[in-house]
């Protein structure tokens, strides 16, 4: 737990806020089944949180013996996924936490490796899921996606997306938070490190946990149970492991407690 209260919160999206990872798995295995192959959780763990193309390259590297090209895989996968995105539901506890943080004026943002078009498909269901639209609406546009080219970001496990999301959310000087100094040096000042330590990241994927810790922030990891059986050799460890966002207690992080 942090030695002082956190002041802002960043959310990954896929598998953390919405139950989209099952769709990713089902669609990928539908395509791979044509070649007698299947994606295991060891393979999937390295894809989670990465930008679309990087995740696909990681996956197909496990199958050098099949004729499936990267472009064909992406085309078929996008077609199948687009049919399902509008129906993907919120995960338990997400609505309660997001609306609670918004009510108490805690700055919040989404930092997702998902493409911008897919973010819109997943979150803007007009009729079938008004609660999902409500939840993403309270972020007031403070959403950074993996293909937002204006930021020049590297994908997770690099820390870029969380640093950019924090900057966009807090409207603070880029040099003060991200650590890009006027003289071009990359050595962080104590002030910059302190800004980073005020952040709390919610993640479900291992690359995202690494990215959050490399950003100098606190990380709550809420993984799919299958991920707990995947060998992990990274140095970065989450600050808290939970089964669900429903188990999160805001007051443990210096945030306002839920109303009775």
Structure description:
- The two termini are about 25 Å apart.
- The longest helix has 15 residues, at about 70-85.
- This protein is of the alpha/beta class.
- The chain has a six-stranded parallel beta sheet with strand order 3-2-1-4-5-6, with helices on both faces.
- The protein folds into two domains: about 10-20 and about 90-255, Rossmann fold (3-Layer(aba) Sandwich); about 20-85, Orthogonal Bundle (DNA polymerase, domain 1), CATH 1.10.150.
- It contains eleven helices and six strands.
- Helix 1 (about 20-35) packs across helix 4 and helix 2 runs antiparallel to helix 3 (about 50-60).
- Helix content is about 40%, strand content about 10%.
- It is globular.
